[in-house]
Amino acid sequence: MFELWTEKYQPRKLRELAGQGQAVKTMLDWANGWKRGRPKKSAILLYGATGTGKTAAASALAHELGWDLIELNASDKRTLQVIRKVAGTAATTGTLFAGASGKRLVVLDEADNVYGTTDRGGYRAIAELLKQTRNPVVLIANDQYKIPWEIRGACLAINFRRLTTETIVNVLKRICRAERVEAEPQALRAIAEAAKGDLRSTINDLQTIAMGRKRLTARDITPYRRDREANIFDVLRQLAYAKNGREARELLWRLDRPPDDALAWIDENIPRMLIEPADLVRAYDAISRADIFLTRARRRRAYGMWGYAGDMMSAGVALSREGKLKFVRFQSPSPIVRFARTRASRGVRDSIARKVAARCHVSSKEARKHYLPYLGLILKHRGGAGIAEELELEDAEKEYLVKLA
Ligand SMILES: Nc1ncnc2c1ncn2[C@@H]1O[C@H](COP(=O)(O)OP(=O)(O)OP(=O)(O)O)[C@@H](O)[C@H]1O
Ligand SMILES: [Mg+2]
Fold first, then answer.
1. Domain annotation covers residue 333
2. What is the pTM of this model?
3. Does the C-beta of 20 come closer than 6 Å to ligand 1?
4. 53 alpha carbon to ligand 2 midpoint, in Å?
């Protein structure tokens, strides 16, 4: 199974965090304050651009101080239910939020994307938590201004800066040494500059480019970028013919797509090459398993599951074939295919039906059965822009309807 380098080289200690010296110092001072009782601010807010080390820093902090780590995701409905329960009744804090010995670091990731913002219930629960907690709390966000000021005011705000090219190059050098890849400085510079301070995506780029190479020169970088699009069909075809799991997984890396997208391309193209029904059954089985892992990875931000998903969509799909392959013209997956795959299509359909129902004074069910197919036809053959506008249809909804007709 392949391992993401971002996970393999995730900083485990605060001082391993690159380029965030000031933030790290403030975090440690605050954490030490907890040793003497409850500091004035029970929480810190780590904010800043994506891929700069916020989540990694929170875990490292807990690890370094020997605190238990409770990771919650604020965008998850279940998380808020837990917080509400704990914050609402002081008696229950004993179980989850007040360890008898030592502290528990409560990390609330995605605090700028809280579930239940319309009724503000989500933020109320967090505010309560900050007031009542007897344990240190870390909020994490990309955009601090999306968080209500009452909550921001209760936190010590700590900025995570975009990393400079220098800093990023140093991290890449270290990884290359560990992976025994000999890389030209210009090559690393080129990779680092493309990522605009986001170390996560830079490391992902490095891993993709370095796949199967011992040496990395500046020349490897440019064609790699240019060929991205053109290559995808070739890579997919090779994937269908892959003879072992290792080869399939390497090809997946060369596909160079985010996991959901890679799966959509595979789902769209590879099953059509299969001739034997038994092969098809196995391939779809692997695809749907990959889909399940991806959904879980996303929901729980457990990106380790990408590995399983990756294995399923590459090795799982490739090795499900016993019979011959036929030649088909490959095509790019339309958004609608992606919807169908993720079962979101039902959501799209229902949202159109609701809009139609409201305008035409029928039930959603009726709208779905009797109106949607016609709407599709109208959109397809007569433009139907007026109707789409009237119903305030989103692009994805229009596409769904056209596909339906
Ligand atoms: N400052 C850093 N030093 C070393 N590695 C880093 C740093 N920032 C990011 N990384 C690498 O990128 C990966 C992702 O970082 P992390 O999840 O902490 O980013 P984040 O700031 O929480 O991003 P997001 O806002 O998207 O959640 C880490 O596992 C690590 O491999
Ligand atoms: Mg994060």
1. no
2. 0.61
3. yes
4. 7
